[in-house]
Amino acid sequence: MQTDVLVSQPLGVSNTFKTQSGSAVGRCRIKAIYGTSGAAAGTVVIYDGTSSSDPCLMTVSTPTAANQGTFWILMPGEGVLAKTGLYAALTNVDSVMVIYG
């Protein structure tokens, strides 16, 4: 399935991934995740919705030190389906972006 892809970071204090117009990303397929490690081992937990009480889609463990630089994870097949939106809980991670379609 071919589809255009977009990129988003969790914006503001809400940790909700948003479109360029500022509205929350809705139903989509995560194609890849790119991020920058923090000073210690960390995690990126992505939920299907707008809060951590929504269903968890994935937990990504990040490298153990800031000098590890960036992490890049490609999703297999058609990607990971988020039915309602994308919300992230970040621990010891400087930044994260999702590539979605």
Layout of helices and strands, plus pairs?
Blueprint: E1 6-8, E2 10-11, E3 16-17, E4 28-37, E5 42-48, E6 56-62, E7 70-74, E8 80-82, E9 86-91, E10 93-100
Antiparallel strand pairs: 1-10, 2-3, 4-7, 4-8, 4-10, 5-6, 5-9
Distance between the termini: 10 Å
Secondary structure category: mainly beta
What is the alpha-carbon Rg in Å? 13 Å
Q: Provide the domain count.
A: 1
Order of helices and strands: EEEEEEEEEE
Number of strands: 10
- Overall average residue pLDDT: 87
> Can you give the helix content as a percent range?
under 10%
- Outline the biggest β-sheet: 5 strands, antiparallel
What form results from the Cα inertia axes? globular
Question: How many H/I helical runs?
Answer: 0
Percentage of β-strand residues: over 45%
- Uncertain segments of ≥5 residues (pLDDT<50)? none
Task: State the main characteristics.
101 residues, mainly beta, five-stranded antiparallel sheet, three-stranded antiparallel sheet, 10 strands, globular
Structure overview:
- With 101 residues, this protein is mainly β.
- The chain has one domain (6-100).
- 0% of the residues lie in helices and 52% in strands.
- The protein is built from no helices and 10 strands.
- The chain has strands spanning 6-8, 10-11, 16-17, 28-37, 42-48, 56-62, 70-74, 80-82, 86-91, 93-100.
- Strands 1, 4, 7, 8 and 10 form a 5-stranded antiparallel sheet that branches. Strands 6-5-9 form a 3-stranded antiparallel sheet, with no helix packed on it.
- A hairpin with a 4-residue loop joins strand 2 (10-11) and strand 3 (16-17).
- The radius of gyration is 13 Å and the shape is globular.
- The mean pLDDT is 87.
